[in-house]
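Sync notes, pocket subgroup
Present: LS, DG
LS reminded everyone that the earlier model was apo-only. Rerun requested with magnesium ion included. Inputs:
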Amino acid sequence: MSMTTEEPTSETAAPRIDTGRNRQARTNGVILLALAALAALVFAPDSSGIATFRLSRPTDAIPLSDLAVPAELSIQIAAALLAFLGVRQFLRGGARWTSVSLGLGLLIAVAAFLVWATAGKAFSLTGMLQATLVRAMPIALGGLAGVLCERVAVINIAIEGMLLAGAFTGALVGSLLGGIGGLAAAVGIGGLFGFILAALVVTYRMDQIIAGVVINLFVLGLTSYVSSQIFQEHRFLNNAPVFRAIKIPILGDIPVIGPVFFQQNIFVYGAIVMVVVATYYLFHTRMGLRARAVGEHPRAADTLGVNVYRTRYINVTLGGMVAGFGGAWFTLGSVGRFDEGMTGGRGFIGLAAMIFGRWHPVGAFCAALVFGFADSLQQKLALLGVPIPSEFLAMAPYVATIIVVAGLVGRARPPAADGKPYVKE
Amino acid sequence: MQVELRGITKRFGEIVANDSIDLTIREGEVLGLLGENGAGKSTLMNVLCGLYSPDAGEILINGEPTVFRGPADAIQAGIGMVHQHFMLVPVFSVTENVVLGVEPTGLLDHLDLEKGRREVREINEAYGLHVDPDGLIETLPVGVQQRVEIIKVLFRSADVLILDEPTAVLTPQEVEEFFQIIDYLRDAGKALVFITHKLNEILEISDRISVLRRGKIVGEGDPAELTRPKLAEMMVGRPVTFDVAKAPVDPGPVLLDVQDLTVLRDNDEIAVDQVSLNVRSGEIVGIAGVQGNGQSALIETLTGLRRAAHGTVRFDGHDITRVSVRKRHTMGIAHIPEDRQRAGLIGKFSVAENMVLNNYYSSRFSSGPQVNWSTVHKSTARAVQDFDVRTPSVFEPVAHLSGGNQQKLVVARELSREARLIIAGQPTRGLDVGSIEYIHERLIESREQGCGVLLISSELDEIMALADRILVMFKGHVVAEYDTAEGPVNKSSIGLAMAGAAL
Ligand SMILES: Nc1ncnc2c1ncn2[C@@H]1O[C@H](COP(=O)(O)OP(=O)(O)OP(=O)(O)O)[C@@H](O)[C@H]1O
Ligand SMILES: [Mg+2]
């Protein structure tokens, strides 16, 4: 249409409109102010002395000196910053940058919390970041598996079970054939469960949630039985080699960044490679375009000659393989031994990471880092001996999940056909 | 290329949607396919494009019998279809939608979107389509989306294009542009099948017309020798009156009173900007306007589906700005939603269940927590008959009904309730002339019984025929108002106001 008329201007009499963004900004403001109050009234009076953060070990190629800050003063500064960010939300134009403000505010609050916990002691920052990456891996891989499945509209609740199956198989086959064999078997078993899930929900149109729960219960029951009955007696079956960290030459010597990113085991490197490959696959290849079309509008894909069922089978199986790889982390990547239910809900946190990461491999990976951070934080805090019961500290990753999914995600949009079976004709 | 359908029969359970149909499609020609709702037009075309396989009969391409095992085969054979409900992925770009299924690729399965973009531009130029290859589908107006569908078909170098009700969702301006595109395509030697319920359109654009009724071809003809009444009679099987008789009615007290209403879209853009209007009992107020100028948001707010950012809505003296949807129903507001599949019906539910979606709890259908299904079935059977909804039974899932019959079901539900205000959004979209006539009569009957009717339609003829007062919406404002009691309204002046010229 060729319309040359200008938009009617009614600025003079425009009523003050309560937009969704303004409401969101106010909520964020309240949160920020609450954090400011917490920092100023609870943490600051309770911290005295200097908080020392260690950045490198003396044995490192390029040692850095420690970062020492006066505890009470820095917490007060953090509180002031938080209060400023919070008040800004209520002012005119505060709705702009509101999510960024909230994110920044949370970072500041976490920093203040760390200073409080470290006041008068010393704490290895690099160590915690390194642990963050390590602990984020099963979550990231679970999230990536979720992304692969949900992009073709199959909800995969069974990631938890696939992780567990991967952990178990990794330990068992790893004990017999060595690490590489165990890893391959874990990937294989994950793919097998992915294929089974695809068969149940695509071919037999079973409810996706129920199919997932069934797989979870099956894997949990079977692995618990075998580990308590058989592994107890034949310990050599549950004694797998562990993949050690491999230091990448030169890059591994960079202070802070080196230990965090370039002195890790193959699970970390593997996950990063998979995220890159998955991103390329989903957004830059023909198969990826078809997969996304199947997740958004299967009927349209079908009318264009794309095989909806086959696409779903392939992607869900691939997702299962990724989850199987992630499962092997629990045994071959850390302790070399399988314990009952050792995945501890990481698969579900992985799904949360997928949502927080907006169904994008890179997003899911970054979200997993947030959860990994919460996880490693609780571990290190327990070492620092903060006056919080360890049971509460152990809740940190789950609490972080709830806060993030309920509060921060906002209007993330899942693939349009997510969870819906596709019926031809 | 010439395509011949011979003796095509397609059954869905008991229903024979196509009953040994013969049809020939020739290159350089537009075949108009006409038929009442549920006649089997979409089914026949779905058979032709490989989506359904026929129970009997064969398809001949240039005289060769051909069997399609799926849409891919039909595309291979050069047959492409633009579906009644668009088949576009909303979050994809134009190019991504166009190349889907036949993607140009490079090394490592790499998607060569640049090549796709280039070809989209070439098709744009060859047929005068003007579509931005990088536009995101969900942000494009329907008219442009439709052109994307056409590009999709052309990109697959189709020689036969099937267009299923392409104009149902277009504005008059867009229809004109669309017809130009059809002319281009015909001149380029393509064979076209054009389905519509609008008789003047089919007379204007087609070279040959076939009429379908209850799964059979009941007539064929040359548009030069046919007229609207003749076509309508062929289609419905009885004469149809095009002008509704409307007795003058003295409007009563104000039923709906909207003051200073401002409504936002999901993305916080202003959809309705300080609109005030009222509807009195015994009058039909029509809101004309090109789609996307805030009418949808207005209806959603009046019916309680969207919150008002500012302003008040009063019904019968009560402030209902923040009243729940259910309360509005029980107060006597009926709502015919614009998009029946999204807001009017639940596809998997049966006809009877859909019929009582908004009043199953009334004492008529329930005693206590228990729904009295036999009453529901009986009353639904009556309504289905009254409104001529073509369905095998009241137990049929609504998704199996043809588009037009779904619409009639919604109208039947809303008009057979005791309502005092009817808010009707595009009540006759996709309906055949017979059904339009019927629904118009029912709306006028409601008005004569003292109902207020707020009619939103992008069909100017419909507004002109029914409304006592006409408001024109443009970019969220009411930009013009006409009262038919003060003499006949000038159609072209409304058209200009719709395009924003009245400002
Ligand atoms: N998938 C299906 N399952 C069962 N019945 C169906 C199905 N699709 C169509 N039908 C039935 O077949 C008949 C023809 O439907 P069709 O959609 O071809 O009509 P149409 O001519 O396109 O009508 P409209 O103009 O309303 O779109 C209808 O009675 C409909 O109820
Ligand atoms: Mg149809």
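DG: Chain B touches chain A through 48 residues (CB under 8 Å).
LS: Chain B is about 35% helix and 25% strand.
Action: DG to write up.
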